[in-house]
Amino acid sequence: MKVTLIHPPVYINKHGLTALRPSLPLGLAYIAAVLRDDKHQIHVIDALGLAPEQMMPDGDIWRLGLTPDEIIARIPPDTQAIGITSMWSYSWPIVRELIQKVKAAFPAVPIVCGGEHFTAVPDLSMAQAPIDYLVLGEGEETAIALFRALEMKLDISVIPGVAYRKDGQIQKNPRRDRIRNVDELPWPAWEFFDIEAYSTNRLVSGIYYGKTVPILATRGCPYQCTYCSSPNMWTTRWFARSPKDVIDEIQSYHEKYGATNFPFQDLTAILKREWVVDFCQEIESRGLKITWQLPAGTRSEIIDEEVARLLVRSGCRSLNFAPESGSERTRKHMKKMLTDDKLFRAVHASVKAGLNVGAFFVLAYPTDEVEDMKATVRLAARLGRAGIDDVSAGFFFPLPSTEITRQLEKEGKIRYDDAFLKLPIYVHNKFLSEDRKFCTHFTARQLTRWKYKVVAAFYLNSFLFRPGRVFRILWNFVRGKETSKMESFLQETVRKIRLRKKAPAKVAAPVPVGKA
Q1: What residues does 84 pair with on adjacent strands?
Q2: Could you tell me the residue range of the domain that residue 306 belongs to?
Q3: Strand partners, 357
Q4: Is the dihedral of CA 194, 196, 201, 207 positive or negative?
Q5: Whether residue 224 sits in one domain with residue 157
Q6: Mean pLDDT of successive 10-residue stretches along the chain, which has 516 residues
Q7: Residues 221 and 120 in one domain
């Protein structure tokens, strides 16, 4: 079949206080690879890669990338199927508008959607947009079966992992088992994407160390944190590729594209010590001159001084820990399997080895009280004294189909409207508003103050004990260089200011929500 795959435009927050940046769509690149290998003709429209500097106002947030009309103009007239991805639910309003306009322009062409958002809220998605089929969960095997069935007009009802319409009702087939031998999957089909456009505009996850291609070395996570969408999307099974296969992929991108920086987008990359040791030693044995990083929250249990030294020798430059809270009570509610002793053992080893280290905090979790906030401030201060480089503090937001969100639904505190779905785009605002909090023990103003207390406690201690960092940050900012998340934030702020000056006054009104 002639299949058009679309990576939609994204929302960004002009008032954001962190360097959260969209990056190459790894999931869609995997789908493009398996469909290509199944002999389909693939055409990719990457709204972000084709217009990385096109930023347009949409109320109090911004759209980045091609407009829906510009995307439709690029769809080949003879396409036989259209696939659209959506990773984050906060982008649903713009993705919904895109789907509605695509269906109006190509009414006879089946639209297939997949990604974290559609897996989390399939009924809402199909009720609000004219989607023909959904791929639920891990997508490669389901996509192969579904597109082959569409081509050959076979029965969809027997394909695991598919949702579809029948007699006006939404039908959801049983979920497909997870892929166990992930080494058998083809590498992402980056030939359909503009890697240079992403790197030039620093649209990368983590810190920008040079030309960047993302990597996925493992899939899934065995833990069950209450705020995380992984148990629904991936189940709680964790499968790792062989270190050799991952490094073969990295080496191929280094030779083919000149890529030198590889952020791992794994949910839980560091889980087994033996895997990490083998991976680092294989890079050393090949003499690869690359940098790699772990921008997502990393498990701390296996990082000791020996592992930290290996990470640095193999080219790892940055990793992040995710204590989420300084309060043991809050972590217990989150089902966060972490203790301060384990955290600081890993922190001290990582700092001693010379890694750039960051930490994530989530404030205003529904159970948080004053003592929990105080504990988070104390932990942030300790981390500053311990020598880590950065701290990010955001407000809690309930992701669809997570354990804590289901609990809040039962309590009548959540309604799946656009305001709720867009919440994540606002969690790094300068101030929190009353309608965007789920912690009843504080006002929004009080929570905002706690956020600044956490950040201040960290950076005051960090700069007091290591005053040279201030000069390093300023010097790197002048040179346009990034070696920490603070420097990434400064560079991204400059980029947003430049793009806003070029942006038009307003964006066209979106298509109204309607039943499909």
Answers
A1: 6, 113
A2: 204-466
A3: 319
A4: positive
A5: no
A6: 97 69 95 98 98 88 93 98 93 95 98 95 95 96 98 96 94 94 96 96 92 95 88 86 97 97 90 93 96 86 93 96 95 92 95 96 95 98 97 90 92 83 68 84 94 96 95 92 87 81 63 49
A7: no
